[in-house]
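Two entries, shown back to back:
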Amino acid sequence: MTSSLAQSSAHASPPSREQVDAALDELARILTSDSFSSSKRCRDFLEFVVKHALAGDADSLTERFLGVELFGRAVDYETATDSIVRVRANDVRRRLAQYYSSQRSATPVRIDLMAGGYIPEFHWKLQETQSQPSPQPNSALPSPIDRPPVSLQEDHPHVAATEESVGQHATMPGRVRLFWGSGAVALIVVAVWMTLALRPHTTNFDRFWQPILDAPSSPVVSLPTTDTLQFQPNAMQQFSRLKPGESINLGLADVQTFHNWHVSLPVLQATLSVTLALERKGKTPLVRQGTDLKMDELRGHPIIAIGSFSNPWTQQNVAGLRFTFDRGDSDSGPPRIRDAFNPQRSWSLLRTYPEPQAKDYAIVTRTFDPVTHEPFLSLAGLHSFGNQIAGEFVSQESSWNEVAARAPAGWEKKNLQVVLETNLVGTTTSSPKIVDVYFW
């Protein structure tokens, strides 16, 4: 019988020599696989963090430490503007997921890299065997094989049993019972210890995700998409020949429209974070692209909607809640997040194209259908980068420890909203910061 134990190298007891050897063997298989053969940087990254974790040095695996040791950055380099470590870690996570998806049989240990962190997680494959207690040699307790039992029957006069020998052998059964009784107690103690040690510990991360993890059907991740306009070949040639100050007149026939064609990179980053987080917990989501998904297709599935104005599921389920999205009183202004409890309070961007100026905001919303009690989760940003930080936020253990510290008792069974803020330098986001939370 086999069982799986997820052991975080940062918080669990040090692995045994056998576990270390198994992990190093698995690392060697990963590094020589097709998934990693094309990227030496990813091989170096994974080998570095795994060996440090197995050596008991997991706490040192911070973004700054990796930037200095692996990528030659200065000790005081600005991690907020230099995303080399985050980008490489995301690439390693993607390649690990690709590697394990191609494995036809279970491996002795699975190596994962949690979203939002750089400490590898090891999922050991434990073999449980039933063992019989084997008594240790003891000169005071002769083996039944070495000393056969002596008959003390009085109706056999030819057996000469002295009072001393009778007493000696009469006490043996009690001593044997004592030995085997002690062994049974020891086995019970070990069994209880193993049960407690292997019993999964419920974290705040688990409490948030439990309604989706417990659902009988796979969750559906709904991606926002936009239509893409492309010049027809003749129009493209005319446009390419334009000189500064010149113009051309184009009609609808000169433009081709592709429906549900474009998905932004930050949305894909959010999808990757959520997918990896769910797969670590044994739940494989279904990813669906486009805004044309019908209710019949999604009935019975928990929905994880990414995007705000570009995702109708967010518009439908977040409208009317305390924190919601709108475009001002005229419905044509810049997008904003509004607090219905305090109408004077809102968060907005000065511009959204081509990129936000310096910040982006997002709302994480989890609600339960009042009739079916099915969970709905929205990860929605004002701009696309808000979608990314919302996906990263819900996928990190530390996020829900911070939320739980602000939450009422029983929060895991309540509807909730979390407003997030991130700073932007170019297209690089900072770690999401909680602006406000609300439970009901």
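entry 2 starts here
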Amino acid sequence: KAKGKERWERGVQDSAATIREGEDGRLVVGLEESLEARKRKRLRQDTKPFQRGIIRHVVLALDLSEAMNQKDFRPNRLLKMLNYAEQYVGEFFEQNPISQMCVMGMYDGLCIRISEMSGNPTDHTKPISAMRDTRGLAYKEPKGSPSLQNTLEQARAALYHTPSHGTREVIIILGALLTLDPGDIHQTVKACIKDRIRVSIIGMGGRMKICSDICSKTNSGDDTSYNVAVDQHHFRELLLATTTPPVIRSTSASTQPNPASLLMMGFPSRVIEDDPTLCACHGHLTRGGYLCSRCNAKVCDLPATCPSCSLTLILSTHLARSYHHLFPLENWRAVSWRRAKLVGSSECRACMSPFPSIPDPLPPSVADELDRSGGRKGTSNDDDDGGGSDEEEQKAAESSR
């Protein structure tokens, strides 16, 4: 039992926060609705291939203002944001292994640097995790108001020296309903447009006109990059949705288009040494690592940029994981247990993931249908759903999960 609350009081509060009206007019639990909405969104996903920037340079800006002390997200906005930000870093580099990121914080009208631009997720997860420790030196009590202008200026400075073949993005998590700016933020937005910087904002409080203008102007008129979370589950979905590389849009007249060019990369193999040597990336003594294909400098992990010759060092698997964004998979098609048992597939032919076991006996509704059609379980007759053709069986095997 929660302190200071009776059980019936706690139940009413939780129900009011999670029960809402569904699309069909029925009252449904918020989590149940989000799961169904996620399934419908997956079925409606557009599989048309677009040109995307798979080499991304992202600045993640976290709100550390006084508004993050509010407890509409349990236990409060700050801790929930830090937890999801740490998960986001891991998911981001899982989906974009050849990209780079840095983390900043909006604190008391200033923009502080939490981590430097790096392609190693550990360089970002450690500082974010340290900010949750109230007894540590990295912990900062939420204070003051955020400044979108200072954040955009700091992000411009961090992205200024990034190569032109990659995208430049700023993802802002904003919990406050105001911005404390020292100057004209519209001039800063114009500078971001000139530098080809895309801005995405995820609000935790309410919509702001200035945020909508920033996202619309920096994304060629598309304001879908500005969203406000209604609860913590929705907030997590909005944050993880930014792991997909953005679509390359036509540039405005004030922006110089980026011509297509070839990018030189190195694919080194791992070496094991008898005696420890210093790595070029951290200066640590290690017995193994990866030797640069151009200058033979040793780095600890991949992907990385060679500290000596600035060559991009990756593995072929990293390139393949980024390449799949350009050609998305076809949408899944739901099939009945009867079709799944008819084909007899036990795992996905692409990723080898096992399918759920087929119930035996089949559900009553399916079994009755089989009895009425005169067929036997596990066999195909001349009914409409039987689909004796090899093409239908192959489609069912590829689409059933």
